[in-house]
Specification:
The protein is an alpha+beta fold and 503 residues long. It has 16 helices and 18 strands.
Length: 503
């Protein structure tokens, strides 16, 4: 039920009972709205209002929800809200009949009706429908938040998105923008010759990323299974199998903290291209996100919370070590050993974890000192091997990988690399991940023997890219929380004693 703090509990229960009594009376009269299965609609509010000259004087049939009502003797004015917007209904007793008018006056705000009538403009200039027939299609037994108070509580808005969309119709704009942006991605990749595919969501191994999985159980096989944390390893199997360009956009699941940027399930896209490298993936990243911006907002320059973000290609590029040197003042070109790196880390307040090595310390420096400086779209490249278990080593410096992450507004938006296709090197990386698991890192990769077998069959040189869709949509819609761009974000069930955890 929607929030109705302005009505006390006793009055609320009385109002709800009145609505049920009205329904019962209609049913007893043989006018049960819930028995109506279909209603033919010929038009919608905004189409009529935007093209009034074409519709003036014509009879149209609309359907929607009553959002306000004013009854003045023999005339009533109702606001009808459909999927496009609102339009006024002009209801005169002489036009609909005395008995029908008497019944129509009992309809409540929130009821869903169908209306047939002539399109006209009132003396005050408002485009309206002069109703000749109104049909009750669904009786609302709850009370919508009234206009003055509205539905403002964010928690309640996310829990009852259906009410949020009704009383705050501007909320729809974010999701319409989202749809435009997703279409832009598909249009670009389809135009580049990529094939959209589907891979398993239930996995026997939680692989493809460093993250905690959701664990379930398959009863027939009597084995644990995992909701995917990434679809990377399956997509690369398809490149092994002979597909040159593939992508998949869909839900990923990570059993981790929740915040304004994190939801346990989220939308990501991953794409893989044979005979390409990480530099090709940079081009795809720039093109995809800039096209998302253009088709969703009309420009490559986006205003996010007062900051202009310019997604026009080409974007700035920095290696991770260059970023650390610029913002932390530490030059890792002069630091060769793990021991030296640990000493420098301690001096700069970096937390040292068991078994930490030079490459992991470089990454820790970047996260501590560099990440929050990356406002404009920027590629951070050449991550250490220790934090890149699936990326190909750089020929110039085998301690680094041909990898990048894309950042904007201090947020990571994308991750990509030239894929590691050496099965011997890949096995050693998996073994290193197992070492990390033994040291207590429960986000480290598991050994995937079948993926190693696929690499032994032969993976061509390949570039791969993953983009976090929801964060990009947040930037394009000027949304401060990921929950504002998810129709139904994850929420703790009401009635739980402890507060919902927010990181």
């Amino acid at each position: 039920m929607a929030n109705n703090d302005h009505i006390n509990n006793e009055d609320l229960s009385e109002v709800l009972q009145v609505r049920r009594d009205k329904l019962k009376e209609l049913q007893e009269m043989g006018k049960d709205p819930f028995k109506i299965s279909k209603f033919e609609v010929t038009n919608h509010s905004m189409n009529i209002k935007d093209n009034f000259d074409d519709f003036e004087g014509k009879v149209e049939v609309l359907a929607g929800r009553i959002m306000s009502k004013r009854v003045q003797g023999k005339v009533a004015f109702y606001d009808l809200q459909d999927s496009q917007g609102r339009i006024q209904l002009f209801i005169r007793k002489d036009n609909v009949g005395e008995e029908e008018y008497k019944e129509i006056k009992t309809y409540d705000i929130g009821d869903i009706v169908g209306v047939e009538g002539e399109v006209f403009r009132t003396q005050r200039g408002e485009i309206s429908i002069k109703a000749s027939k109104i049909t009750l299609l669904s009786k609302s037994l709850q009370i919508l938040p009234e206009k003055f108070h509205g539905l403002k509580d964010p928690d309640l808005r996310y829990r009852q998105r259906y009410v949020d969309l009704i009383v705050n119709p501007e909320v729809k704009n974010a999701f319409l923008t989202r749809t435009k942006a997703l279409k832009a991605i598909r249009r670009y990749l389809d135009g580049e010759g990529f094939l959209e595919v589907e891979t398993p969501i239930l996995n026997t191994i939680a692989g493809g990323a460093n993250a905690k999985p959701f664990i379930t159980h398959h009863n027939t096989l009597d084995i644990p299974m995992y909701l995917r944390i990434a679809n990377e390893l399956y997509l690369k199997r398809l490149i092994v199998g002979g597909f040159d360009k593939v992508y998949e956009m869909g839900r990923m699941f990570r059993n981790e903290g929740m915040s304004i940027k994190h939801n346990p399930e989220y939308t990501a896209i991953e794409l893989y291209q044979a005979y390409a490298d990480y530099k090709d993936m940079m081009t795809h990243t720039e093109n995809i996100i800039s096209q998302m911006a253009v088709e969703a907002t009309g420009s490559m320059v986006v205003d996010y919370q007062g900051t202009k973000l310019d997604f026009t290609p080409p974007w700035k590029r920095m290696t991770m070590e260059e970023c650390v040197k610029e913002y932390a003042g530490v030059d890792f070109e002069t630091i060769e050993t793990d021991e030296e790196a640990i000493e420098v880390a301690k001096k700069h307040g970096i937390e040292i974890e068991p078994g930490m090595r030079r490459g992991e310390i470089i990454n820790a420096f970047f996260e501590e000192f560099g990440e929050d400086k990356l406002i404009q779209p920027t590629f951070i490249t050449h991550h250490p091997v220790e934090v890149s278990p699936l990326a190909k080593r750089s020929v110039e410096d085998p301690r680094k990988t041909d990898r990048f992450e894309a950042f904007a507004n201090k947020w990571e938006l994308a991750n990509a690399f030239s894929e590691l296709n050496d099965p011997i090197d890949q096995k050693s990386r998996f073994l290193d991940q197992e070492r990390k698991r033994e040291l207590g890192d429960d986000e480290a990769f598991e050994m995937d023997e079948d993926f190693l077998n696929a690499l032994e069959v032969g993976l061509p040189p390949t570039g791969g890219l993953g983009i976090g869709i929801d964060r990009v949509i947040m930037l394009l819609t000027n949304s401060t929380s990921i929950r504002d761009v998810l129709l139904f974000p994850t929420m703790k069930p009401l009635g739980k004693k402890d507060e919902e955890h927010q990181e």
